[in-house]
Amino acid sequence: MILETSGSGGWHVWAISPDFHDTREWIRLLKSVAGRIGVPVVSGVCEIFPPDSLPSQFGMGMRAPGCWNPDTDTCSQIVWENCRTSLESVLSGKSKIAALNCNGLESHFPDKRNKLLSLLPSSSSNYHELELLQRLGITATGTRNGKLGKLVGEIFHQVGQDMAQRLAAAQFRTKTATTKADEAAHLTSFEKHWSGLAVKWTATLSPAEREIFTRLETENERDAFRIVRSFARKADQDGAADFPIARDNLAERLGVTGKGAAWIRDKLAKLGVIAKTADYIPNKFAARFEWRLNASG
Questions:
Q1: 8 A C-beta contact, residue 228 and residue 275
Q2: 203 — pLDDT class (breaks 50, 70, 90)
Q3: For residue 116, which phi and psi values (nearest 5 degrees)?
Q4: Can you give the pLDDT at residue 88?
Q5: Helices (H), 102-181
Q6: Rounded to an integer, what is the distance from CA 30 to the centroid of its chain?
Q7: Alpha-carbon distance 119 to 29, whole Å?
Q8: Is the pTM of this model over 0.70?
Q9: DSSP string for 219-267
Q10: Are strands 243-244 and 78-81 parallel, antiparallel or unpaired?
Q11: Is 37 exposed, middle or buried (0-12, 13-18, 19+ CB in 10 A)?
């Protein structure tokens, strides 16, 4: 960590890792820290970099700590840091920590491990979280339930229920307005919104679709059925004969591994729900499928 003056009356806190990490991991970590200390991530109060609205998985260039700030024509001052020892071991090639991870933390920083683990994001990212919360974040008092309803309505046909619940939880944890409801009440409201849409959606299934749907054994399989069916209906609306199902994209929507998503996709094919029309071409095209069940009008 490095603490430096910003040159404009504020402070910069740098968090440095020996390894590279996806910027989305940094964003989730920094937002979780801000949430734990009760500070809203808003301009002029607490800002994070990479920014929450970053459209790419890569960040932008930054001035190094302690260097010249052209806006103020001064050098930022490093007030405190604890990374010098780590840097010396890395530069000398004698570092015992190949990567800053949970296992390394246990042996080198045993008293800090549990606290840091509570802040680290889960290994799987939330589907389009940054984009969704930028548009549907809770930023004004009295809008919580309405924003939640819009979020659920937008993602119902896009993601699995577990992923949807994660997004709803993230919506509450990143709110910048006070709410009467706590997180538990927010998630109870989520369940009501989701259940209501599920009842309406089930009523639209044709007899053939309903028969297969009731034979599915897990929630992930039922979620995949709903998501893939939405792909098929969109293709039908566009006048397309088939549609792509990218393994990793389906995995992200369900919150499972790529292998898990492939297994579920293959099961839907074996049950006659979908049929492959074109094979996957590496770095070019996802495998394409057609919906094989008679759909209701």
A1: no
A2: very high
A3: -70, -40
A4: 54
A5: 102-108, 113-119, 129-136, 144-155, 161-173
A6: 14
A7: 6
A8: no
A9: HHHHHHHHHHHHHHHHHHHTT-S-EE--HHHHHHHHTS-HHHHHHHHHH
A10: unpaired
A11: exposed
